[in-house]
Each structure stands twice: as structure tokens, then as C-alpha cells.
Design a protein that fits this description.
- It is a peripheral membrane protein.
- Belongs to the complex I 20 kDa subunit family.
- It holds the Pfam family Oxidored_q6.
- By secondary structure, the chain is of the alpha/beta class.
- The chain has a single domain, classed as Rossmann fold, CATH 3.40.50.
- It has six helices and four strands, in the order ααβαβαβαβα.
- The chain has a four-stranded parallel β-sheet.
- The longest helix has 19 residues, at 144-162.
- It is elongated.
- It binds iron/sulfur cluster.
């Protein structure tokens, strides 16, 4: 790894000595991306896959991802399931209660675009109609590895944004 403003040799010497150089924002981004605490928002069948992802077989803890039950302790929300028009204000309220910085993962076709019930009179056509979404995970339902892949992409996004790069 070559550090900004250092030659390759200097960077190698620093790395050998176990020294990491970065801006405070980059170090904060690195720390945040490795300690994501998602609030669970399971409204339908995708929630079961989300719970399975957090169980022993897939072990989300190894990525520093630990589910929280309170929005006050969460920096990420995983929306797993259908969002109805009645539920949308609750989602918005929970999102507003989360401290900054915060991120949103829409898991499954219901949360990303309304899913199989998209024509229903009561169904919101995707979480981004209510709050901003950072990562969309397709599938009905997405498997645990797909959710893990999406969460890893969110971690990449947090680290890249800390470097000042715009990620969509
Ligand atoms: S995307 Fe499919 S599996 Fe997930 S909540 Fe909707 S209907 Fe259920």
C-alpha cells in the first residue's frame, strides 16, 4: 500500500513498522465501516433471511456487524419486507431517531421496489419513497450470502466516501 505524499519505499517502511497514515475522516470511515450496528426492520418474509444471516451459520459478528433493537444505538437500518402506507411513517420516524451518520439497506424486491404486491393499494413502491437508500439488494427473498454481499458493499461505500469519493 502506498501512502499519499510518500514514496513506495517510505510507504513500505511505514507498513513494516505497523504505521497507518490517513486523514481523520478516512480513519473514522474505516472504523465505522467495521462496526456497523444495523437496526432491524423486518415486516415480512425477507426478515426470516435477515435473522438467518445474523445466526451462527453466517456469523455477521465477524464483520463487526451487530444487530441493535433501538434506533438510538444504530447507524444502519436493514429494511426487510413489504412497506405499507400505514407503516411508512413508522419507518420515517425510526430513521429520524437514528444518529448521524446513518445508512439504509433495502433488502428484497418489496423493499427495493414494492415486490410482488406492487399493485396493491396499500403498498409503498420501495423504501426510497420514504427515506434515502444506500444499498439495494434484489431477490425474493435474497439469500443470506446476498445480504452479506450487500453489507460488504455498504462497508466499501463508507470507506470510499470517507476518502471524498461519491458513490451511488
Ligand atoms: S421480497 Fe419476497 S420474500 Fe421478501 S418480503 Fe417481499 S415477498 Fe417476501
Amino acid at each position: 500500500m502506498q501512502f499519499e505524499g510518500f514514496t513506495e519505499e517510505e510507504s513500505q517502511e511505514l507498513s513494516k513498522a505497523g504505521i497507518i497514515i490517513g486523514t481523520l475522516e478516512q480513519i473514522k470511515g474505516w472504523a465505522r465501516s467495521n462496526s456497523l450496528w444495523p437496526l432491524t426492520f423486518a415486516t415480512a418474509c425477507c426478515g426470516i433471511e435477515m435473522m438467518g444471516t445474523g445466526a451462527a451459520n453466517y456469523d455477521l459478528d465477524r464483520f463487526g456487524i451487530i444487530f441493535r433493537a433501538s434506533p438510538r444505538q444504530a447507524d444502519c437500518i436493514i429494511i426487510a419486507g413489504t412497506i405499507t402506507k400505514k407503516m411508512a411513517p413508522v419507518l420515517k420516524r425510526l430513521y429520524d431517531q437514528m444518529p448521524e451518520p446513518k445508512w439504509v439497506v433495502a433488502m428484497g424486491s418489496c423493499a427495493t421496489a414494492g415486490g410482488p404486491y406492487v399493485r396493491g393499494y396499500s403498498v409503498v413502491k420501495g423504501a426510497d419513497q420514504v427515506i434515502p437508500v444506500d444499498v439495494y439488494i434484489p431477490g425474493c427473498p435474497p439469500s443470506p450470502p446476498a445480504l452479506i454481499y450487500g453489507l460488504n458493499k455498504l462497508q466499501d461505500k463508507i470507506r470510499l466516501e470517507a476518502k471524498g469519493k461519491k458513490v451511488r
